[in-house]
Amino acid sequence: MALAARVSDNRDMRRALAISAVLACGSPPPAAEVVSVPAAEAGASPTHVAALASHARPFELFVSYRMCALARGKLHCRDNVAPAIPLVHGPVLEGLEKLDVASAAFGRDFGCVTTAAGEVECFGGNHFGQLGAGVREEQHPAPIVVPGVRGARRVYAGPFTVCALLEDGRVSCWGKNQQGENGSSTNYLEAARELVEPQIVRGVSNVDELALAWNTTCAAATDGRVWCWGSAKLAEQRAGGDANEIPALVPSLANAKSLTANEESFCAVRNEKVVCWGNLMTLSAGGARDELTTIPIEHAQRVSLGSLHACAVDAAGAVYCFGSNTAGEIGVPVDKDRWQPLPPTRVAGIPRALDVYAGSSNSCALTIQNEVWCWGRFDWETQDVRAPFRVAIL
Q: Rounded to a whole number, what is the distance in angstroms from the first to the last CA of the chain?
């Protein structure tokens, strides 16, 4: 892999910390309960599957280093979200007031958006060139246009990497590229961040969705093909070496959808089964590195990975969470004596769900009535753990 570098200017490199969403909570409904995962539920599939395909969402929710809602072209983010105060009544994210935002994504200490004009603008930390805009500074608080990216439909972010999904189904990536996760053969050192340039990932086409981990990127195409590049997370990928900037088809992931990633692992829905791979230490007691692990949730439709846990919704609209439960993010009381990850656990008290969002220490679900319900830890000052409660968005 080629190396791009500049001599360091000897300044102290500040490490920006990820900002956790802080939500003010109202009175919670009854506590969630652990139930067994049913093989099938009456009336589970046809109606809800159709709703998944046709449901028009008036907003898009982000539960990442901030909790935000994208509605009518504006990205609203608040540090304190009360159940009775709609999130979109709060301020637009600073610097984006004049932009017509079409999609957004957040990494460890930065964010990027696509605009209605098909451009990408990024803001925040730039230690590894993740802003992709030729910026020398470690931070650039104001949004700045990423040159060389046109016709962007959506944007996806890893910890320090960004990929834009273009209208023609191609993918353009930039940022830290230690093991080929950008699909590029150039590794930019931290001191060379202003040299980072977006590059089209060769060999992938008709892409529909992406997921980015620390040093691996995966893409799913409309025809069911799935490619991954960067650090190999499955044994079948290692034929090309442990790290490869050239995308390789992954047969075991064919027809996977709802791709999602955290820093160390991936999950997806394949043939109505939740499958996960990578470092599954915090997600599944039976998960192993280099192997595809099936999580026992029947008729799964969507899945979302948080920092140490994941949540999925089935065809009946029931929500199940699994993995570490350090702050009630699974939807059950925290057992401080338990170190093993929890198996899929149904979260009680939630109306029929359409989608799920797993954050760092919290989880949310979108219902078919466009309501948002959240649970876990939302107030880091009081350390309160909340059972599911409704959050006003619109």
A: 48
Are the C-beta atoms of 65 and 108 separated by less than 8 Å?
yes
Higher pLDDT, 43 or 393: 393
Residue 195 token pair: 């040299």
Under a CB-based contact definition with an 8 Å cutoff, are residues 296 and 343 in contact?
Answer: yes
CA proximity to 272, closest of 90, 48, 117: 48
State the pTM of this model: 0.86
Tokens encoding 267? 């999950």
Handedness of CA 182, 114, 319, 27 (dihedral sign): positive
Tell me how far apart the alpha carbons of residues 341 and 223 are, in angstroms, rounded to a whole number. 34
In angstroms, the Cα distances linking 12 to 46, 126, 136, 138, 254 are 58, 14, 14, 10, 45
Residues 228-269 pLDDT 10s: 999 999 888 777 678 889 999 999 999 999 999 999 999 999
Structural domains of the chain sorted by starting position, each given as residue range(s) with its CATH number in brackets: 29-66+263-378+385-394 (2.130.10.30)
∠ Cα 294 158 341 (to 5°): 35
pLDDT in tens, 270-299: 999 999 999 999 999 877 777 899 999 999
Strand order in the sheet with 342-346: 300-305, 309-314, 319-323, 342-346
Q: What percent of the chain has pLDDT over 90?
A: 64
Residue 237 near residue 250 (C-beta atoms within 8 A): yes
Q: Tell me what pLDDT residue 50 has.
A: 35
Q: Strands of 110-115's sheet, edge to edge?
A: 101-106, 110-115, 120-125, 139-145
Residue 292 identity (one-letter amino acid): L
